[in-house]
Amino acid sequence: MATADKFLPAAQAFKKAYPIGTQVTAGDIRDFARRYKNGLDSDLLIADEGKMIGSLCRHINLGAQHADITEQYHIDKVSPGKYEVVKLADHVNRQASVAVFKSTNAAMKPLDSNRKAIDALNVADLDADMAAQIEERRKEIDAAATPLRQAAITGLTEVFVLRLMHAGRPEEDARAIVQALPSLTKELKLLNQLRG
Question: What are 82-123's pLDDT values in tens digits?
């Protein structure tokens, strides 16, 4: 298994060539590796271009996480063939937000399906004891779902921001767009209705 020590010199050289905030292409990464070679030369032997670039990024990123690098960074894939050099902390923060959204969304599914089942019950047909038990389950589900729903909203917001940033929007603009989405969605729906 590769270690961060092995790829630290390559990561330092890459950062010097492409500082944090720089947009790079797959070709830039490949050309850097061809010029640099030291530690990356085996990656250049991979015939499939996509796999070669993926391996180069993994190895440079491994070195870029080393404690001895002046500012840790990560090569983030923005779109096919396009990448951005970002602070490692920003990358980790965004990935954690995505993980929170995915986890909370998965945790919400059984709660939501049980809430729908409870809502579908005709409580008037139940005896008082069973109706009280059902109402207690509804309260338990709602209590469990509330913090999960808030975490999912926060995570999904970060997913939207990340996608907009990958499309080339600055983070501040991306957050403003996500903030405006509810009203924009309503206006888009109205516009589509008017178009018939």
Answer: 999 999 998 888 888 788 888 888 888 999 999 999 999 988
How many CA atoms lie within 13 Å of 20's alpha carbon, on the beta-carbon side?
Answer: 14
Tokens linked to 56: 């180069």
Residue pointed to by tokens 């089942």 = 117
Task: Give the SS3 label for residue 69.
Answer: coil
Per-residue model confidence as pLDDT tens digits over 143-175: 999 998 888 888 888 888 888 887 778 889 989
Q: Are 87 and 70 in contact (CB under 8 A)?
A: no
Q: Is the dihedral of CA 25, 63, 14, 160 positive or negative?
A: positive
List CB contacts of 165: < 8 A, sequence separation 6 or more: 171, 174
The pLDDT confidence band at residue 72, using thresholds 50, 70 and 90, is: very high
- CA–CA distances in Å: residue 178 to residues 44, 153, 155, 163, 168: 40, 11, 12, 11, 15
Nearest to 65 by CA among 57, 74, 56: 74
**Residue 98: enclosing H or E segment and its boundaries?**
helix 88-120
User: Does the pTM of the predicted model rise above 0.85?
Assistant: no
Q: Residues 24, 73: contact at Cβ < 8 Å? A: no
